[in-house]
């Protein structure tokens, strides 16, 4: 699509289609995230008044620095520190001096800014590690200053708005979304990405409707009223007011169905399926409890320490763990040990060398083989925190590929005084030989995002292969079924804690394949609870059989959906 | 010319928060303040980018210099920040 889709009568009712990844209806004016700031012309010269050009550059820098500080002050906490550091970089006197020197030689301000930043960019990039990561911060400041100087729209997402907007982008990076809240974003629409993209995960965790993989979305003119259906994936431009009222009414009816399903998770015929929450730390507890989580199925401990330069102390860990355990008296809390590497490196657990493919490198439990003292410290802190609380604490390791690894981890847990160790099933080798691995541990938890990535050989970070990153692929369903049957045959539990568990249709299929508990981002819990409560275990098994007989992800979903009539009321 | 040689003890080296505090403190002086790695060329201690680019790691030594009113006190303060004590 080359011509922009403009606001106005001519596009009333234009419909774009994508993949719905976070159900619900969202309506608001389009806010299109600005694309990259183009590199200023190498040959650009100013009109000869170097002093005026220099003060123009200085004002632009100060405007950007002040804006960064103001946004930091609004956000508070961690974000304030990050944005404050960026403001300090923007105001760097050496940088200002170099910009001034280039302008004195006749270079136009935008190019002078680009070149002066470029020198430091190269220095930091060459240093590697932590410093190389600051390059993105520096580029962001540079682009902001150039945007001010050239009148281009400012990159980034506004942190506040008079009315919630529909955020439209090619794709969203974590940095774009750090300050977003439900109060400013009515819905997300992205051109790229799949069900496990950052946008999808973020939208579900915020409880905001989202559509990804929507071709032509960034051509929507800013300000165009947009109605987003996060279940069907439809994006309607300048809709008829009646359509908006209708969509909102349907949304409310759906929410009524959701709130009607309460209590512990179970199928219509009373087969219990504990519904648990995925959390990254104590801050996620409120949402988990509000959505009726029966416990925690995945406590991602690395999220406590992502921005840490040094390993957290034992007592600090103990405190963070105990807060979570105490929130679920008598309930289950499954803790995953540090899952460092690939998309979430920890500064205090550096890989020994540059990895050409981090997803296949030293991550998860493999990192503990290199740093056993960090494992011992974490398991010790968990054991101390678990002592004297009534929650049933279970510990599991990520990225286990072999029986030997499972035995090694289980041994370390028992040495630390932690009973009932488990492992995640994310690597196809572990799923295929689940019957061997289950003998070493007490439970499995399937991480469907990584299992899909490895089964389909499709890197989660590479958007070009996002189409393959779909847990509905029958090959992935087969691996899940293999692991669930092996656990069941041994009389042990097998949960799912990947994004697949948050898909109400797939959740029914998982239960039909013998999965014993489901853990997900808290906002998905009511949807999954309602979907399960409207079907019998036999219906779930039929849906699972139908899905596994299909030959594509799409056909598997359609076949399963046809066996699950109770989803009609949820408009799924 | 006042001068201090300091061994950086902070686990993060002279990066992140210690670097920001260091630069903000140096920036208060109305005169030049420089920082260099032992044996390296000095850069402005008021420039966060220059300080970061030095890539000072835990256990490395730095030399800080300044000349002017209160330079001794300023260097003491900077040395304290850099040493991470």
TrEMBL record, chain A:
Give its localization: Cytoplasm
Which residue intervals are annotated with compositional bias (Basic and acidic residues) in the record?
39-53
Which cofactor is essential here? Mg(2+)
Query: Do the record's keywords include Cytoplasm?
Result: yes
Instruction: State the source organism's domain of life.
Output: Bacteria
Q: Which family does it belong to?
A: Belongs to the PEP-utilizing enzyme family.
Tell me the ranges covered by the PEP-utilising enzyme C-terminal domain, including all copies: 264-534
EC number(s) stated in the UniProt entry for this protein: 2.7.3.9
Write out the GO biological process terms.
Answer: phosphoenolpyruvate-dependent sugar phosphotransferase system
Which GO molecular function, any one, fits this protein according to its record?
phosphoenolpyruvate-protein phosphotransferase activity
Which lineage do the record's taxonomy fields give for this organism?
Bacteria, Bacillati, Actinomycetota, Actinomycetes, Streptosporangiales
Q: Which residues form the active site?
A: 198, 497
Q: Could you tell me which InterPro entries the record lists for this protein?
A: PEP-util_enz_mobile_dom, PEP-utilizing_PTS_enzyme, PEP_util_AS, PEP_util_C, PEP_util_CS, Phosphohistidine_dom_sf, PTS_EI, PTS_EI-like
Official protein name in the record: Phosphoenolpyruvate-protein phosphotransferase
Pfam families linked: PEP-utilisers_N, PEP-utilizers, PEP-utilizers_C
PEP-utilising enzyme mobile domain residues are 163-233
From TrEMBL, chain B:
The HPr domain extends over 1-85
Supply the InterPro entries for this chain. Answer: HPr, HPr-like, HPr-like_sf, PTS_HPr_His_P_site, PTS_HPr_Ser_P_site
**CDD domains the record matches:** PTS-HPr_like
Q: Can the keyword Chaperone be found in this entry's annotation?
A: no
Q: Which GO terms describe its cellular component?
A: cytoplasm
**Summary of the function given for this chain in its UniProt record:** General (non sugar-specific) component of the phosphoenolpyruvate-dependent sugar phosphotransferase system (sugar PTS). This major carbohydrate active-transport system catalyzes the phosphorylation of incoming sugar substrates concomitantly with their translocation across the cell membrane. The phosphoryl group from phosphoenolpyruvate (PEP) is transferred to the phosphoryl carrier protein HPr by enzyme I. Phospho-HPr then transfers it to the PTS EIIA domain.
Pfam families in the record, alphabetically? PTS-HPr
Q: Which UniProt keywords apply?
A: Cytoplasm, Phosphotransferase system
> Gene3D superfamilies from the entry?
HPr-like
Query: In which compartments does the protein localize?
Result: Cytoplasm
Biological process terms from the Gene Ontology for this record are: phosphoenolpyruvate-dependent sugar phosphotransferase system
SUPFAM superfamilies xref list: HPr-like
Name the record gives this protein: Phosphocarrier protein HPr
Under the heading PROSITE patterns, the entry gives: PTS_HPR_DOM, PTS_HPR_HIS, PTS_HPR_SER
Q: Which organism is it from?
A: Microbispora hainanensis
Q: What is its main location?
A: cytoplasm
Mind telling me which NCBIfam families this protein's record contains? PTS_HPr_family
